[in-house]
Design goal:
Elements: E1 12-13, H1 34-41, E2 53-60, H2 66-75, E3 88-97, E4 100-109, H3 113-120, E5 128-134, H4 138-142, H5 144-153, E6 161-167, H6 174-191, E7 194-197, H7 214-236
Parallel strand pairs: 1-3, 2-4, 2-5, 5-6, 6-7
Antiparallel strand pairs: 3-4
The structure holds guanosine-5'-triphosphate and magnesium ion.
């Protein structure tokens, strides 16, 4: 893909997309962090922009629907036939967030045990980890902790954003879904991950991206990864004032928790 091609109109984010469930959200603020908005307005986003590509890895049991989820978002396609991912695949997606170009590399890894060791060599350097389970298979939810542990061996747990995604929502009845969601929210809270439930199959006639919650989910991943990147960049560049502490993924996973109580430099 040509990295300099214009960003698609349906990949432009001007507002912070909202979480799915308040009790398992990385943060519950309605807008981007004011310092991030400011930095974007003043073109002070450092390496976040045209040349920086953020890595997102997608892990989880075999056949939970990782490839379908990525294909639904990136290509708006759905294949009902299962074709196991061998090792890894990746897709590049370009966005514009608050006027700043931002690229995500989505790494689709194999869930099959025999390909796991190839796939795990690609875990390193992730800024976000998406752990997928099948909403209709409780074992796949139980396995998410192991997937997370493996992915975190290669990454810095304090700076990576975590998302727990239940897939194939179209296959569960509302009652079944509610039961599974209860367990999933608990797991998400333990992991300090943001919870989402999606279907890559349903909503086939909706544009620009079909599937239930697929577009909303990836936009949220994009926005939070962008926000964390810009905050990290501001911190690195020393633009913050003394006593103005920003943690990217604090203990309760709230990006804003330790942000400055003083007024940011550039904001009213
Ligand atoms: N009904 C339904 N089926 C789905 C959905 N997502 C995926 N599937 C089906 O589930 C099967 C597995 O999907 P994949 O996306 O290939 O699974 P995967 O997690 O990438 O599997 P590995 O590559 O082996 O790790 C396929 O037959 C898909 O058609 C969904 O949202 N709803
Ligand atoms: Mg796959």
């Amino acid at each position: 893909m040509n990295i300099l091609a214009p960003v698609r109109r349906d990949r432009v984010l001007t507002e912070l997309p909202q979480y799915l469930r308040k009790e398992a959200a990385l943060h519950v603020h309605k807008d981007f962090h004011p310092r991030v908005t400011c930095a974007c307005q003043e073109h002070r986003t450092g390496t976040v922009g045209r040349f920086k590509i953020s890595k997102v890895i997608v892990v989880g049991d075999l056949s939970v629907g990782k490839t379908c989820l990525i294909n639904r978002f990136c290509k708006d396609t759905f294949d009902k036939n299962y074709k196991a991912t061998i090792g890894v695949d990746f897709e590049m997606e370009r966005f514009e967030v608050l006027g700043v170009p931002f690229s995500l590399q989505l790494w689709d890894t194999a869930g099959q045990e025999r390909f796991k060791c190839i796939a795990s060599t690609y875990y390193r350097g992730a800024q976000a980890i998406i752990i997928v389970f099948n909403l209709n298979d409780v074992t796949s939810l139980e396995h998410t902790k192991q997937w997370l542990a493996d992915a975190l061996k290669e990454n810095d747990p304090s700076s990576v954003l975590l998302f727990l995604v239940g897939s194939k929502k179209d296959l569960s009845t509302p009652a079944q879904y509610m039961l599974m969601e209860k367990d999933a929210l608990k797991v998400a809270q333990e992991m300090k991950a943001e919870y989402w439930a999606v279907s890559s199959l349903t909503g086939l006639k909706l544009l620009p991206v079909s599937g239930e919650n697929v577009r909303e989910f990836f936009f949220r991943v994009t926005a939070l990864t962008f926000e964390a990147n810009v905050l990290a960049e501001l911190e690195k560049s020393g633009s913050r004032r003394i006593g103005d502490v920003i943690r990217i993924n604090s203990d309760d996973s709230n990006l804003y928790l330790t942000a400055s109580k003083k007024k940011p430099m550039c904001c009213p």
